[in-house]
Amino acid sequence: MSTPLLVLLVIIAVAVIYYISLYNKIIRLQTTRENAFSDIDVQMKMRFDLVDNLVNTVKGYAKHEKSTLNDIIEARNKFATAKNMKEKADANNQVSSALKSIFALAESYPDLKANQNFLQLQNELSDIENKIAAARRFFNATTKEYNTTIQQFPANVLFHKTSETFFEGEEVIKKAPKVEF
Fold it and tell me: Does residue 178 lie in a domain region?
């Protein structure tokens, strides 16, 4: 083989290896992003279960507060049938609003504020809110890395991928519900 042909083959081999490596990196980032969203999904499901218990605890103290329970049931149904991240975030927003109502209600019932089940559920809710925030930060970090990778040259020319959205919502989901007693 002649030297120019050998050099050309080496250049082609390096280009193919780089292409494969870049493609695999994008697939790895996509998979990591999907896994990160699954983590958010799991935490939000746990949150809904906890909120159901919280509502059941509150029901004994305020039987006339059916609208809050209905809001949570509606949010849970929206979450269960959500087809994408935005719909799940919207359901999460709705339950955050309902939680504010529950905690405001607790102010009206001193016995409820002192109830051990209510206090335990409040602590668990705070923990889950922190886990959701951490999972959301990880998801957004992986989304940022994915978007950066696909927008850089040569990936933007070779693969024509579209940027993914971050897990964002209304202000109510950007922080844990304020719980004060």
Answer: no
Q: How many domains does the chain have?
A: 1
Task: Tell me whether residue 67 is in a domain.
Answer: yes
Q: Residue 171: which pLDDT band, with cuts at 50, 70 and 90?
A: very low
Closest C-alpha among 149, 138, 151, 146 to residue 164: 146
**100 is in which domain, residue-wise?**
3-173
Q: 46-60, 68-82, 98-112 — which is least confidently predicted?
A: 98-112
pTM (2 d.p.): 0.70
Q: Is the pLDDT of residue 143 over 50?
A: yes
CATH number for position 22: 1.20.1440.20
